[in-house]
Design brief:
Helix content: 40-55%
Radius of gyration: 17 Å
Largest sheet: 6 strands, parallel
Oligomer: single chain
Length: 227
């Protein structure tokens, strides 16, 4: 199946497609790659977490305790700025796809900061009022730690090789708690342990079909691989 055919399929499968889709999940789960593919399929604007621009991130993975606060604050300011620019953009854009949800930012802060640092972070977070666009759909990608580690290893970002399984386990648990209580938008929870919607066309089509069914509430999608 050609790329053009898949793009046509994506549009056909979503006659009432959401205008703002957010894809979330732990490090290595594939949220950015999937956001890119969905944006390409819809011919839409792409809003990405710009991790490579954070000058503290590589240092954070080498020394989490020392660099957690500047890393977290840099990401917070960056995301607020991106969303402000987003709100000022063309609201007639047919679809917009993002790979981050601002409301989950405190999740990383609580996981990585000391109590005193977290209290400072909360004060700053509370002061950064931004007219946040509300997603029409949030896609939460899940995968077990061994799958996340394998995917991180394959993408071969040097500083990410310092990520340990215990940190990913804590991160997975934090994401699960966050989305257990999340009610801010329709939510599709996808188990990606056995599928690859980024590189496998059938898996991608399967996911699009599921996205089409979501109109409100919480939905679970636990597919098996077509590879």
């Amino acid at each position: 199946m050609t790329v053009n055919t898949l793009n046509e399929l994506a549009i056909e499968l979503m006659p009432e497609r959401p205008r703002f889709i957010v894809i979330e999940g732990a490090i290595g789960v594939g949220k950015t790659s999937l956001a890119r593919r969905m944006a390409e399929s819809f011919g839409s604007e792409l809003l990405l977490e710009e991790s490579d621009d954070n000058p503290f991130l590589e240092k954070f993975y080498a020394d989490r305790q020392r660099y957690a606060l500047p890393t977290q604050l840099y990401f917070l300011f960056q995301r607020v700025r991106q969303l402000q620019d987003f709100r000022q953009g063309d609201m007639f854009e047919p679809v917009r796809v993002a790979d981050f949800l601002l409301e989950k930012d405190p999740l990383f802060a609580r996981l990585n900061l000391t109590d005193d640092e977290f209290r400072l972070y909360q004060q700053i977070y509370a002061q950064l009022s931004v007219d946040r666009p509300i997603p029409d759909l949030v896609i939460y990608l899940q995968a077990p730690v061994d799958v996340l580690l394998a995917r991180i290893f394959r993408r071969a970002v040097t500083y990410e090789r310092q990520i340990h399984g215990d940190y990913l386990e804590q991160l997975n648990e934090a994401y699960a708690r966050f989305f257990h209580h999340y009610e801010g938008a329709p939510l599709l929870i996808v188990n990606t342990a056995e599928i690859n919607p980024v590189d496998n066309d059938e898996d991608f089509e399967l996911l699009l079909s599921e996205v089409r069914r979501v109109r409100s509430g919480r939905h679970y999608f636990n597919p098996t691989s077509h590879a």
